[in-house]
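User: Run a structure prediction on this.
Assistant: Running it now.
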Amino acid sequence: MTPTMEDRIRQWFADNLDALRRESGHRLAPAVEQAALHQALAYWRKLGQTVAMRVTDTEVRLNLPGNVTPKQRPFNVEGVVDIVQDGDRTIMYDVKTHDVEAVRGNAASYQRQLNVYAHIWQQLQGQDLDETAIICTAMPKRIEAAVKTYAENPTATTEQALLAALAPWDPIVSLSFDADAVQAMMADFATVVDAIEEGDFDAPPLARLKEKVYPGTRWTFAVQVCRNCDARFSCDSYRQYARESRQQGAAMSYFREYYDDYGPDDEREAWTLAALSALSTAFNDPE
């Protein structure tokens, strides 16, 4: 029997997990594995025919050398995108692990980055783009719940519920190309390069950490950005934020909780389960 595309996705997923375990020693918790697999399958069901089957070039690495900062430092700009060529139309997609509403609410920021990628493509390929867009991989809560239910109990009823949840969802955000914005973004890149080379790493003020990252969302800058930054452990602004965010207690409790802040409880639980699973495998499979 010829394997279906979903069969192939399952096999590719298993192969990637095995490679991850062997190369890095990391393992996902079983529940996290299942959720990730069914998220991939859900994306295939939603975008398989409209995008995935039409991708002509995937993981295209773009590199534009020969740039110079205001202080005469050379630098390159790189990016990785997917290209779809559908008849006479060429579309560039950039995959982001962000929520679609967050992208739409802060479209100008994403547009500037994608404009640079489009500029590099056109410079290297000598080919115009008809469309640029973001594919958002973060699923809305209602779809996550439907995916979880189907993963735990794959029946015709839960499958139909999943398909119904997927139907109104559109994870693609189209962004227009603005050639004038390219130079502004390149200037920002150049300024950042100079700052990095000169060790200018001033943290944002405490007030910035308390602000919402995107209008209309509940995530603060500290949660969305700082928790993904290893430098938070030596950041005065984050230390103040962590102290103010805790309930009243002893100073030592503040200090301990600040250094133990590795993210939300569900993420910590997933890491713990994954570590236990890896230890169990190591004892039973010394390889």
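Residues 100 and 170 are 8 Å apart (CA to CA).
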